[in-house]
């Protein structure tokens, strides 16, 4: 992506003006999810029981709380991009596109912020 | 839809097509992905939020999603909760297997007709086996 000739300025960027960034981020977060979600469900399955004390005690440990915060970032990014592509395929009216645009750019961030705060409250103690 | 003469190759057109494994896995990838995004991440947030709120909120989560101890509405949602949780684990395994297939396709491998159909079908076999194995482990150990 040079800045000299016309073709050099646009080469590789395509109609989205951001090139393959969306596509590549979807793949990177996919690999992250393979590790993180496998860790989450395997850990939950291996817990001796699922009482409040056991599960909260597990989340409060460093590795699980780090993994859960990464899930709130990585998995929500992946889900946001996937839902965006789905909406792009099925929503054709202008009004619907505005609502879809708001949904995709607001809800995942609010949801992830709620998730991260919840993990921090558990990890940093306090009742 | 269904073709009367299978022997002759026919170009797919708007109303002239037949389900193949790759088509099924493709739409399953979208359905499982969006199911995980809305139902899966929704439940994840309820779970972690309840866990952060305290023992009472966590018990409410367990009652509605799995135990149904309060009876009434909880008894109904506890049945739905089990179906949704089993469904979500299947959706994860299917989406993961299909996703790994996509990563392999992205490097340019596996486009031969037979190979493509075989790996498409295998993602479904793998996801069902992993789902059964996972819940057998959780419930029987």
What does this structure look like?
The complex is a heterodimer of chains A (127) and B (141). With 127 residues, chain A is mainly alpha-helical. In chain A, 78% of the residues lie in helices and 0% in strands. The longest helix of chain A is centred in the C-terminal third of the chain and has 30 residues, at 94-123. Chain B is mostly helical. Chain B has a domain at 41-107 and 117-140. Chain B contains 4 helices and no strands. Chain B has helices spanning 21-53, 55-67, 73-106, 113-140. At the A-B interface, α2, α3, α4 and α5 of A face α1, α2, α3 and α4 of B.
Mean pLDDT of chain B: 92
- Which class of secondary structure composition applies to the elements of chain B? mainly alpha
Distance N terminus to C terminus of chain A? 53 Å
If you consult CATH, what is the topology of chain A?
3 helical TM bundles of succinate and fumarate reductases
- How big is the Rg of chain B? 20 Å
Sheet with most strands of chain B: none
Tags for this entry?
heterodimer; A: 127 residues; mainly alpha; 3 helical TM bundles of succinate and fumarate reductases; 5 helices; elongated; B: 141 residues; 4 helices; 77% helix
Lay out the secondary structure.
The complex is a heterodimer of chains A (127) and B (141).
Chain A (H helix, E strand, L loop, with lengths): L5 H5 L10 H26 L5 H9 L1 H29 L3 H30 L4
Chain B lengths: L20 H33 L1 H13 L5 H34 L6 H28 L1
Helix pairs in contact in B: 1-2, 1-3, 1-4, 2-3, 3-4
Summed up, what is this model?
The complex is a heterodimer of chains A (127) and B (141). By secondary structure, chain A is mostly helical. Chain A is built from five helices and no strands.
């Amino acid at each position: 992506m040079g800045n000299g000739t016309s073709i050099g300025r646009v080469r590789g960027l395509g109609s989205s003006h951001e090139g393959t960034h969306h596509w590549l981020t979807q793949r990177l977060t996919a690999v992250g999810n393979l590790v993180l979600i496998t860790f989450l469900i395997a850990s939950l399955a291996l817990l001796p029981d699922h009482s409040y004390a056991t599960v909260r005690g597990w989340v409060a440990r460093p590795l699980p709380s780090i993994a859960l915060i990464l899930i709130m970032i990585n998995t929500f990014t992946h889900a946001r991009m996937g839902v965006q592509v789905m909406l792009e395929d099925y929503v054709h009216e202008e009004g619907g596109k505005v609502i879809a645009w708001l949904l995709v750019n607001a809800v995942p961030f609010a949801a992830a912020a709620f998730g991260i705060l919840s993990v921090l409250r558990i990890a940093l103690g306090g009742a | 839809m269904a073709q009367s003469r299978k022997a002759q190759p026919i170009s797919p057109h708007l109303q002239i097509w037949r389900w193949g494994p790759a088509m099924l896995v493709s739409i399953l990838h979208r359905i499982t992905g969006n199911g995980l995004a809305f139902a899966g991440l929704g439940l994840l947030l309820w779970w972690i939020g309840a866990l952060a709120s305290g023992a009472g909120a966590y018990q409410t989560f367990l009652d509605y999603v799995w135990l149904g101890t309060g009876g009434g509405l909880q008894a109904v949602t506890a049945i739905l909760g089990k179906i949704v949780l089993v469904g979500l684990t299947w959706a994860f395994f299917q989406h993961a297997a299909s996703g790994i297939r996509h990563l392999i396709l992205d490097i340019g491998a596996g486009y031969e007709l037979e190979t493509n159909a075989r790996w498409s079908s295998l993602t479904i076999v793998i996801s069902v086996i992993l789902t059964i194995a996972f819940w057998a482990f959780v419930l029987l150990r």
